Amino acid sequence: MKKVYIVHPLRGDVKRNMEKVTQICQKLHQQGEVLPVSPLHAFSFVDPTGPQEVVLAYCRSLLLACDELWVHGNWQESEGCKMEVDIAQFVGIPVVFK
Question: Is the pTM of this model over 0.85?
Answer without folding.
Answer: yes
